[in-house]
Amino acid sequence: MLKVLRSSSSCLQQARLPSYLQSNPRHTTTKLSSPFHGVLSSVLLRDTKNPRFFQRVFFCSDSADGSGSGTEAVVEEAESKSPAAIVPTAIKKPDDFLTVIALPLPHRPLFPGFYMPIYVKDPKLLAALVESRKRQAPYAGAFLVKDDPGSEATGSDTEKNIYELKGKDLLNRLHEVGTLAQITSIQGDQVVLIGHRRLRITEMVSEDPLTVQVDHLKDSPYNKDDDVIKATSFEVITTLRDVLKTSSLWRDHVQTYNQHIGDFNYPRLADFGAAISGSNKLQCQQVLEELDVYKRLRLSLELLKKEMEIHKIQESIAKAIEEKISTEQRRYLLNEQYKAIKKELGLETDDKTALTDKFRDRIDPNKEKIPPHVLQVIEEELKKLQLLEASSSEFNVTRNYLDWLTALPWGNYSDENFDVLRAQEILDEDHYGLADVKERILEFIAVGKLRGTSQGKIICLSGPPGVGKTSIGRSIARALNRNFYRFSVGGLSDVAEIKGHRRTYIGAMPGKMVQCLKSVGTANPLVLIDEIDKLGRGHAGDPASAMLELLDPEQNANFLDHYLDVPIDLSKVLFVCTANVIETIPNPLLDRMEIIPIAGYITDEKMHIARDYLEKNTRDACGVKPEQVEVSDAALLSLIENYCREAGVRNLQKQIEKIYRKIALKLVRQGAEGLGSENHGELTEISSDKQTNEPESNTTEEAEVVEPIVSATHPTDQASDLTDTTEKVLVDEENLMDYVGKPVFHAERMYDQTPLGVVMGLAWTAMGGSTLYIETTQIEQGEGKGALSLTGQLGDVMKESAQIAHTVARAILGVKDNGNPFFANSKLHLHVPAGATPKDGPSAGCTMITSMLSIAMNKPVKKDLAMTGEVTLTGRVLPIGGVKEKTIAARRSGVKTIIFPLANKRDFDELAPNVKEGLDVHFVDDYNQIFELAFDNLQTEK
């Protein structure tokens, strides 16, 4: 019988609230519902005070097993007009429905006593449900859909595909066991269901909509007094107590469940636990299909335990994040309070005031030395900084500008040492030879001592790689007691690297000189500008032109950097530039520098450098003691002549390092073998003693005892053992190949006796001096066939020299051997060996003439003769460059006689005596003098 009650008191009576709300909570009973209701009593008693608790529709079953004999509805007056309300009319019992419409549930099964809203997209199915509800049959079967094994579609796609299935296809996708669901409301396509009891599909009645015949399932009989079932149920209740503490939503589930089912019993307890868990649908379906009450309780307990574990993990994650956030917030608040307190007490000022104080502390000690125009700019920028907001971009620009302005060493000069004798010792200590370079540096120091102050100069050290240009600059700084700063301009193509950027640009920086002054902290450092001959030129301007202001002694007293925009005095800076080839330096820039050439080293100088500098430093770097190794002079000489023939000593240092690395490996191997044999004997003795004294100990224990004894040796003791057990290593000319491999160079002299048409010339290269053979031969002879062909990758200058030489040789032959038609009737081929190397330069004219005359007159040139110089059409010999380099090359090749132009006599006289020693040098002004020197006292070969 259905009754509509409007008062709260009658509602409580008709809703048949659980007994634990009507009884004294302090009394305990033996009913199963009492323990569980005791857990939830605080929640439900608190909810009874809320009038909205009774504004619901209740469907209650009378029987304890869930099959009620009647259904009652309690509807508040405000909801009686809603379409969701159920009309109070006589309704059939649930047992009367053996044929129901099958509703597919895509996500979770529906348990008895729980609401579930679903969306019905099929119009026919929706119409059938509405019609069924009108016919006072508001029941349907809710069955979970099986997963499609061959599909990987998402949830929404799966639900869409289910509604497309009809008849048997849909029946095959449904689980057999479902729930009899009462249709409480239909609003649009949303249908709200409440589960009542379990059903099993027996057969299909109709296809569209799918209607099936069902059997109503009852739980298997069980003993309510069974201890195992009681214990399991109490564990479920205990777990539920913990679960219900975590979310108010689940407490609402308890409230709703009690309103529709009534008191709890064992089966309902299992259903409730599975329903509120967050397990997947297959696990829930397994609980729904289980009719054995004990097994159902076990399954539900497993699901609840998993739910608690997940909640614990969730709580730990949330707690960690909350602690981190709360710690950071607390730290932030405390810092802000601390700043406010310090500000109130006057212990700390704001950021702008602190910055201003920092900048003023920098300039106050040297305020008298700072130029007035710079001091004015600093004061203006400090005032500007106070007016700007700290968050503005202009504030950061001004702060960086002031940082650079106040960090420069305005008027701060280092105390120079003008002791010439000390400077001489330092230069000799760091470098061997280079007398002209050292002399120039000593002159600079002497002038500074007489004047009482030094003036910055621009010195350019030019020479091949590896001669020590950069290290000379460092030695000069040490001798003068100046700070040293080096930067390379090789490949530099941006003017801003020298002159700085404008401050308005993002990421603007001052130029290299301003960075240098800030780094060294003095206004008179020694600045080494490396590779100045390799300055580039790009779209950002010409750096070589920008260097003019920096290196001009008349301009660099007021050097203007684009970033600072105030003049800087660089007149006290000593600039030392390095270059390999001065020809590539622009003339305006070259004019501002004093060139000091470094030609390279002859064999004797290399021997001294290798023995006194390179070998000593390399030996220390490799950890080899002097008494452990000996490198003979013959080995060093062979190394220099056959492996390291270039002008510098960088490659020589690499080869010496290679030798000492192999010596170090050899010493360590010998020492390891010696120590290994000794330690092996000691280990054997210890092991035998151990076995004698403690025969019961095993091998592992012996190893543990012996190992500390071996590793306890100090490294210095091991080094001394190495010294004692290794033999001294001797490196001589015979075994040099074992350390450095096969010789790289062979003798530059290709001929012991110079053949016809072959003459040795002297050439200059960026790597130093070199000998150069010029060969001429006759390839064809006939009336009027005089011609000349050239090979050997000759440049335009040398090609022109060859044509001039051919003309001059023809004229000289007409004078010396009148009537000889050789040049008129002979086609000549002139070749310069090493054809893969490009060659050019105005110093091979006299060599070419001599080669042509040798083949024309059938006379070889004098033995051990080399020459250099350019010849005009009138036979006059012009001066050349690189006299020192060419002289060194001649000595290296064993040449005894050299012919130089007369104009180069002064250059030769300035050479060191050891370079000129043993050479027969002739200075000529006309080619006829060369002719007499080359072909005098030679017999004509028939």
From TrEMBL:
<dbReference type="Pfam" id="PF05362">
    <property type="entry name" value="Lon_C"/>
</dbReference>
<keyword id="KW-0175">Coiled coil</keyword>
<dbReference type="GO" id="GO:0034599">
    <property type="term" value="P:cellular response to oxidative stress"/>
</dbReference>
<feature type="domain" description="Lon N-terminal">
    <location>
        <begin position="100"/>
        <end position="308"/>
    </location>
</feature>
<dbReference type="GO" id="GO:0016887">
    <property type="term" value="F:ATP hydrolysis activity"/>
</dbReference>
<dbReference type="GO" id="GO:0004176">
    <property type="term" value="F:ATP-dependent peptidase activity"/>
</dbReference>
<feature type="active site">
    <location>
        <position position="843"/>
    </location>
</feature>
<dbReference type="InterPro" id="IPR054594">
    <property type="entry name" value="Lon_lid"/>
</dbReference>
<dbReference type="GO" id="GO:0070407">
    <property type="term" value="P:oxidation-dependent protein catabolic process"/>
</dbReference>
<dbReference type="InterPro" id="IPR027417">
    <property type="entry name" value="P-loop_NTPase"/>
</dbReference>
<feature type="coiled-coil region">
    <location>
        <begin position="294"/>
        <end position="323"/>
    </location>
</feature>
<dbReference type="InterPro" id="IPR008269">
    <property type="entry name" value="Lon_proteolytic"/>
</dbReference>
<keyword id="KW-0720">Serine protease</keyword>
<dbReference type="InterPro" id="IPR008268">
    <property type="entry name" value="Peptidase_S16_AS"/>
</dbReference>
<feature type="binding site">
    <location>
        <begin position="463"/>
        <end position="470"/>
    </location>
    <ligand>
        <name>ATP</name>
    </ligand>
</feature>
<keyword id="KW-0547">Nucleotide-binding</keyword>
<dbReference type="InterPro" id="IPR027065">
    <property type="entry name" value="Lon_Prtase"/>
</dbReference>
<dbReference type="InterPro" id="IPR003593">
    <property type="entry name" value="AAA+_ATPase"/>
</dbReference>
<dbReference type="Pfam" id="PF02190">
    <property type="entry name" value="LON_substr_bdg"/>
</dbReference>
<keyword id="KW-0496">Mitochondrion</keyword>
<dbReference type="InterPro" id="IPR015947">
    <property type="entry name" value="PUA-like_sf"/>
</dbReference>
<comment type="similarity">
    <text>Belongs to the peptidase S16 family.</text>
</comment>
<dbReference type="GO" id="GO:0007005">
    <property type="term" value="P:mitochondrion organization"/>
</dbReference>
<dbReference type="GO" id="GO:0003697">
    <property type="term" value="F:single-stranded DNA binding"/>
</dbReference>
<dbReference type="GO" id="GO:0005759">
    <property type="term" value="C:mitochondrial matrix"/>
</dbReference>
<dbReference type="InterPro" id="IPR003111">
    <property type="entry name" value="Lon_prtase_N"/>
</dbReference>
<keyword id="KW-0378">Hydrolase</keyword>
<dbReference type="InterPro" id="IPR003959">
    <property type="entry name" value="ATPase_AAA_core"/>
</dbReference>
<comment type="subunit">
    <text>Homohexamer or homoheptamer. Organized in a ring with a central cavity.</text>
</comment>
<dbReference type="Pfam" id="PF22667">
    <property type="entry name" value="Lon_lid"/>
</dbReference>
<dbReference type="GO" id="GO:0051131">
    <property type="term" value="P:chaperone-mediated protein complex assembly"/>
</dbReference>
<keyword id="KW-0645">Protease</keyword>
<protein>
    <recommendedName>
        <fullName>Lon protease homolog, mitochondrial</fullName>
        <ecNumber>3.4.21.53</ecNumber>
    </recommendedName>
</protein>
<dbReference type="InterPro" id="IPR014721">
    <property type="entry name" value="Ribsml_uS5_D2-typ_fold_subgr"/>
</dbReference>
<dbReference type="InterPro" id="IPR027503">
    <property type="entry name" value="Lonm_euk"/>
</dbReference>
<dbReference type="InterPro" id="IPR004815">
    <property type="entry name" value="Lon_bac/euk-typ"/>
</dbReference>
<dbReference type="GO" id="GO:0005524">
    <property type="term" value="F:ATP binding"/>
</dbReference>
<dbReference type="InterPro" id="IPR020568">
    <property type="entry name" value="Ribosomal_Su5_D2-typ_SF"/>
</dbReference>
<feature type="compositionally biased region" description="Basic and acidic residues">
    <location>
        <begin position="679"/>
        <end position="693"/>
    </location>
</feature>
<keyword id="KW-0067">ATP-binding</keyword>
<dbReference type="GO" id="GO:0004252">
    <property type="term" value="F:serine-type endopeptidase activity"/>
</dbReference>
<dbReference type="Pfam" id="PF00004">
    <property type="entry name" value="AAA"/>
</dbReference>
